[in-house]
Amino acid sequence: MSKTILNAVNLKKYYGSTKAVDDVSLEVREGEVLSILGPNGAGKTTTLEMLEGLRKPDSGTVGLFEENWEPTRVQVKERIGVQLQNSSFFRYLSVRETLELFRGLYSHRLPVRDLIIMMNLEEKEKTLVKHLSGGQLQRLSLAVAMVNDPRLIFLDEPTAGLDPQARRSHWATVLNLKKQGKTIILTTHYMEEAEYLADRIIIMDHGKVVASGSLDDLVSSIGAENYISFRASGRQMQPEQLPGLNGIEYKEGDGFSFSSDDVTRDLGALFELSREQHFQIDDIRIRRPDLDDVFLHITGRKLRD
Question: Over the stretch 161-199, which tens digit does the pLDDT of each residue have?
């Protein structure tokens, strides 16, 4: 098993009387991608800021590279890279000039040209920051996080606000960094991002860790092999009017979803029920469980709510 590169124990953070992070403990192993997943306001960014050393916890400890993490420890700072959720750069500097500026802050650093190639910014090397698109700006932000060739990289909502194409491009870059042996911690509220990138996933809600494990472990924990989703038309239906199905997980408008460990049996039961209750089944779908189902199973609401 890979060695632990970061260990956080019982982290708590208050803002006034509001408990933003409530007794969070986690460990990160060398070479893995760990995703902290949760809705907006779950405490993801505050947790990440405490791990990075940008925010002091009210209680709890963080250990990095087998050392107690204090922001004054320059030797620790030299080995981490941080991409903030919202990065601000000098608008009238070019991509190259921005990288040269941040590169000067470290004793060990990668060549600027290597960073530009790594992030596919060759055509934008002389472009001013103010003229970059959202996706290009995120690539520059990640390049800045890489100037010191860090062992551990923190990414806070790295693809928030990006279009699907730019998001996929960013994912490819993250996976390439993993192939280089980098350890990556990222926060996201996109379940697809966590599913695609992460070796392990920590799910947070209201400042607490409510589940953790690999994607397979988390999905297996809810005990559902498949989900059947459908829409009912012809009359107004409520979940309690659908007996004989394996528990309606949620109702959204005229749509329903329920777990199934025997699709053939449960589809038959559904169609028989539609005849008895005089409603029509529209838009029926069968799918494997995902992280949204895990979150719903644990919290009683969907991740996107």
Answer: 888 998 999 999 999 999 999 999 999 999 999 999 999
DSSP the chain: -PPEEEEEEEEEEEETTEEEEEEEEEEEETT-EEEEE--TTSSHHHHHHHHHTSS--SEEEEEETTEE--TT-HHHHTTEEEE-SS----TTSBHHHHHHHHHTT-SS---HHHHHHHTT-GGGTTSBGGG--HHHHHHHHHHHHTTT--SEEEEESTTTT--HHHHHHHHHHHHHHHHTT-EEEEEES-HHHHHHH-SEEEEEETTEEEEEE-HHHHHHHTT-SEEEEEEEESS---GGG-TTSS-EEEEETTEEEEEES-HHHHHHHHHHHHHHHT-EEEEEEEE---HHHHHHHHHSS-TT-
- Number of neighbours of residue 95 by Cβ within 10 angstroms: 28
For residues 65 and 77, give the distance between their C-alpha atoms in angstroms, rounded to a whole number: 11
Amino acid at 243: P
Pick the CATH number of 223-288 from 1.20.58, 3.10.450, 3.30.70, 2.70.98: 3.30.70
Identify whether the C-beta of residue 168 lies closer than 8 Å to the C-beta of residue 197. Answer: no
Please report which confidence band the pLDDT of residue 20 belongs to, taking 50, 70 and 90 as the band edges. Answer: very high
- Of the CATH numbers 3.10.20.340, 3.40.50.300, 3.40.50.1100, 1.20.1440.230, which one belongs to the domain with range 4-219? 3.40.50.300
Token pair in block for residue 133: 């698109």
